[in-house]
Task: structure prediction
Amino acid sequence: MSIIKPSDLLNTDNVLNDLQGSPVGPLVDRSLTTTDAISAVLSAFYTPDVLAGKSRFPGYIMQSEVTDSPIMYSQEESMSWLAQTGGHLEKSVKVPASTVFYKYRVALGAQLDARDAGMDSTAKRPKNALTVKERLDCLPEAYLALPGATQTTPVAPLQPGTYVEMVMMNRSRFKGYAIVKIGRKNLTINTSDAGGLQVSFDKSTPQLMNRGGNAPSPNDPGTMSWSNRNKQKTAIYLPTGETIYNGDLENSNLLAVDQETGANLIKDAMPDFRLLARAYKMRWGQTLFCSGYRTYNGQVFARMIRVNGDNNDCAGNRYGNGTKGEGAGERNANCKFVGYAAIPGTSNHGWGAAIDINRPKAGFTQGMAGNSPQFRWLNKYGPEEFNFNFGVSGEHWHMDWLGWNNVVSGVKVRTSRWTQAGVGDDIPFA
Result:
């Protein structure tokens, strides 16, 4: 058995994008002349449709390049961009400093693109040969064409060595690659000109840059231990047996929204939640306004608010040490308490299995903490009657859905209360 080397993925035929000509079918037309038959066979032989049946083309990101002009995939996009430039193509468009676009040089394999990826060292090349950078600049260009990769919203650049799948916008000329799926970063690419282009398999656990067809988070600097979904949890959804990914459920059919309260939860939790919300309204005369599902990007955003608080070594950051800057603390850049945020990809909100109560709108009285009778009522009756539990220490607003443990395997939520406030109180249910 032969072993595929990293360089084989980029330079060897039939590893990426194996192209085969269409076989010539039997000639059943009895009216064919000998000349017509020979002509048809020769035409099929010399001009085979090697792209027949292929819609997506795999490749690897070799380098990313910054550009201030996005690629246009539709006439609508082109007209919108022209409107911003005043109709002058040569005019630079003023965009926010944080808004940049990326184009990528991709390796497609020798069969689809014969241009040399340059795996051998410079010493083996002829005099005045192109440098590694110059050779990479000759590779085909590709652009993001994903939900979340809009022309006005910046996204984090894809790293060299990331596996992607593309569609070809101009099949007649083998060009115009649009990235429609992002896979794992599983290659480490060294572009040192002295040693030539060196490629190896990542020694660390491959980082999944993308789940569910969404672009990487624009808020992720790519330098955290949790960056690029490196710590994103997965679970098996038992009713269907499918694998689900924390924070990447928005394009699935697993979420349900309660219009009155605003809760967005996994559909299995909604019957319990609506009973809870109805009972709360009957008891307190208030709507239980709350949030629920949080996307992976939303988790990154919440985490990044706390990064500068870590760096500023804010007093009272009980989870962070002020030096790592990982967003582990509870305070923002101004050292204001904003609460704890889970590592992106691990929050119960990312499963649609938790709610955060908007306590002022929900009518909490006598303070926002444990002395509020509304909180004590929820803590007393929530777990036993409605499968919702205050399980995170110090968070008087966060409730987890206990039924989650029955609909998935691989991930559990806390089943014990973090406080006994209200449990022993003589509080009427209704």
User: Anything to note?
Assistant: Residues 270-284 form the longest helix (15 residues).
